[in-house]
Specification:
This protein has 415 residues and is an alpha/beta fold. Helix content is 45%, strand content 15%.
């Protein structure tokens, strides 16, 4: 390949596939067993999915997709600039009720970033990237930099350093943008919304673009997500969201602070002008899921998940299990020290009937590898307990055989 980092990443990923813990194929089990998936013919309880409320199996969402495809066909093969399905308007209108703000739909959240950032950020603006911001936002930010905008990173969630850079950059740039995540997809820590709100009110030139893909559905009024559970949408804040995780459907969106911003994106956003629209199946599923989110049922589902989340974090404390961050989100990350320990752990979990996510380079830095666990309604309390007991056994094995130090391993995640 001619690139040592690329070669290393290829080798790491290829090893996960070779030993049978990565690049796996699956299917859902028959009705009545929807809390499990099938891997190599074995019933597996997933701790690796982001379908937090298990909505992708909800019959109302499935029927919404089926009804829509029967009414409209699979796909309207034309740019939204010329023609779009009436269900696009219906979906955006009901989603605006979920988020209490105007919504623009995109086929994927990645395309939302690609479509929104080059329109919102001028070549004379400055852009500050949180060090842990999702790779898809960083990719879209590179497009902005190519057009002339100043781009620089800031240490993760360091509000003091962020404010220092705002003060400096506002002297030479009309706007200073901060790009971040609502819930960070690997470690499960969160966007400091209230502190950011203070900065938005304090500095006229300061703007924020935040991706709450992993915050939607499991928290917030109507499942509107982590960020909107903390603050109202600020006039200078753009919110990106995903419907392919907790929402149980698909696609992504930009939640706009005004109708003017929505109009700008609909008229001039590249992915809406030059690529295909959301399939009718996705639109039908989004409308059905939105109705669930706008009903009292969403709080019942959120409460059930919160019980599991609380049990998980309480037991981690009781068992002395290390977590990179203890914010009570559905995402948790156990540090492993080196890639070889992930290979060992992944095989143990599969043998115990669980799937987890390998947090490996290039998704994380080489010294920050670990096991990501997702708490969802696919699990019961007994599943969580069994997984944590297996994790405890893994750490005890590493300590005995390798002299593994939890404190030393965690130190690589600090500072």
């Amino acid at each position: 390949m001619g690139n040592s980092l690329l070669e290393r990443a290829f080798q790491v990923i290829d090893e996960t596939k070779r030993i049978g813990i990565g690049h796996l194929a699956t299917k859902s089990l028959p009705n009545g067993h929807k809390k499990a998936i099938d891997i190599h013919g074995k019933k597996i309880v997933p701790f690796s999915l982001s379908d937090y409320l298990m909505l992708m199996h909800d019959e109302r969402i499935i029927n919404g997709a089926i009804d829509s495809i029967r009414e409209n066909g699979f796909n309207l093969s034309i740019s939204r600039e010329f023609l779009h399905l009436h269900k696009t308007d219906e979906a955006e209108e009901i989603l605006a009720q979920v988020f209490d703000n105007p919504v623009v739909l995109y086929p994927k959240t990645t395309l939302a970033h690609v479509g929104a950032l080059p329109l919102l950020i001028d070549s004379k603006d400055a852009v500050i990237l949180d060090h842990h911001v999702h790779a898809t936002i960083a990719m879209a930010a590179d497009m902005v930099r190519a057009h002339g905008a100043h781009l620089e990173p800031v240490r993760h969630n360091n509000m003091q350093k962020l404010e220092e850079r705002i003060i400096e950059l506002r002297k030479t740039h009309p706007k200073v943008w901060y790009l971040a995540d609502g819930v960070y997809s690997m470690y499960g820590d969160v966007f400091p919304a209230r502190e950011i709100e203070v900065l938005l009110n304090k500095y006229e030139e300061f703007y924020v673009y935040v991706d709450d893909a992993h915050g939607v559905s499991w928290t917030g009024k109507n499942g509107s997500g982590h960020v909107l559970s903390q603050i109202r949408q600020h006039p200078k804040m753009i919110l990106a969201v995903s419907f392919g995780k907790g929402f149980g459907a698909g696609g992504g969106a930009i939640v706009c602070p005004s109708e003017e911003i929505k109009k700008l994106l609909v008229y001039l956003s590249g992915p809406l002008m030059f690529t295909g629209p959301l399939e009718s199946t996705t639109l039908g599923g989004l409308i059905a899921s939105s109705k669930i989110h706008l009903s009292p049922e969403i709080t019942v589902l959120q409460s059930r998940l919160k019980e599991l989340i609380d049990y998980f974090y309480d037991r981690c404390d009781e068992l002395g299990l290390p977590l990179v961050d203890k914010t009570r989100t559905p995402t948790a990350f156990f540090p492993m020290g080196k890639s070889e320990n992930i290979y060992i752990s992944g095989k143990v979990f599969l043998s115990e009937g669980f799937s987890v996510t390998a947090g490996l380079y290039p998704a994380v830095p080489m010294k920050n590898v670990g096991i990501r666990v997702q708490i969802t309604l696919y699990q019961e309390i007994s599943d969580v307990e069994k997984l944590l007991q297996a994790m405890k056994g893994i750490y005890e094995k590493f300590e005995k055989e390798q002299g593994f130090s939890i404190e030393k391993t965690l130190s690589h995640f600090r500072g």
